[in-house]
Amino acid sequence: MRLAALAFMLFLLSFGIGLAIFPKIQPACANSISCKSPLTQKIENGATGIFMGREVPVPTIDTLADTTVPNVLGVNIAEGEKHIYVDLEAQTLYAYQGDTQVMKARVSTGRWGRTPVGNYNIYLKLRATRMSGGSGADYYNLPNVPWTMYYSGDYGLHGAYWHNNFGYTMSHGCVNMRQIDARDLFAWADGPENREKGTPVHICYSFTEPNNCIQHKNL
Amino acid sequence: MKVLILTLAIITGLTSSYLVVTNIQGQETPSPASPPVALVESYTPQVDTSSQISPDGTKNLVMKTTHNINNTKTIEFTTTNEDGSNRKRIYTTAALESETYALPFNAWSPDNKYIFIFKNNKEALVFKADGEPILEEELYIGVTTIFAEKIQNVYYDETTGWASNTLLIVNSTNPDNTKGPSFWFEVPSTAIIQLSSRY
Description:
The structure holds 2 protein chains of 2 kinds.
Chain A: H1 2-21, E1 48-51, E2 54-57, E3 82-87, E4 92-97, E5 100-108, E6 118-121, E7 124-133, E8 140-152, E9 155-159, E10 175-177, H2 179-188, E11 200-204, E12 206-207, E13 213-214
Chain B: H1 2-28, E1 46-53, E2 59-67, E3 72-81, E4 88-96, E5 101-102, E6 114-119, E7 123-128, E8 140-142, H2 143-150, E9 155-162, E10 167-173, E11 179-186, E12 192-194
Antiparallel strand pairs in B: 1-2, 2-3, 3-4, 5-6, 6-7, 7-8, 9-10, 10-11, 11-12
């Protein structure tokens, strides 16, 4: 009888500890299917995408034409450390070079999965890749996701061609951008190079200026 | 001597007065040969232009507002390619200065086939981006009007953007002024589908 009581108490204790810990564990994947495979560049012109149960025409990617894309961010700005800030509350991304803001753009972050708050660095840049996940009516499978910049697992900043509802949550955890904005940011931001980490990415609940990225919620 | 001085004074006075009079006349009296000058008030209308690029950067939606003299304005919407070519006239309308038209940030459908604009702040009008009628004999779809006709329990609040190539996202307000559910508004069928969550 005593043993049963002890076991029950231990169960309750473990259960309580589990409740305290598990909500704080960061979700492993933004894209539940594609994040299991290696994150590699995939250009699949002519493929069809699926989003919210509907077929989506996929834009053709011409990598030869990329050479004509001009660098527009940070031009004529003195050298300075680059930082990207994402304001989840305002659904807005800011890019800074030193003290100078070089980009302010509306984005769409996690709606069906959350976008984890934290400080990261871009560790992989891909011209395009395939992202898939969800199930049932929520299933999606999107080739040629352009200008992808991964900063944590398969969480990344990337262009989104399947919706145009920027300024509102619309993703499974990644940071969706207009294709033109993602293109410009991709050209400006750095991946890891010569043992240097890539451009820092700060995901904030709210953001007002560099060094004022709020990453805790006042209860 | 005295007479000489007086004579000189008279001659000098007469000469001076003559010069002054002729000088004034030369300045202020128009020559009889000059044509009369008609004063015509000219009016150059003020023209404002704004634009919204498509998310892929290949198209541009332009709103040109011409402010007329009689407290009215003419608003013209056009679409073009990125380089200004392939100009299509979408919609031209006259309005009072108190009425407003605006280009939403998310105006373009993801495939660039449709655009929507705001009238009087939040009223959404949807057009085909090539200028063709969106429905038979209808140049545009008034989302707000159709929403009010089909949905009775909540009020139209705003159109935020495109969930897909043909689905607009519409937010609503409850009768008690709290936030209501979101809806999909399908173009061009005008079907309205209630969603389980709010955008």
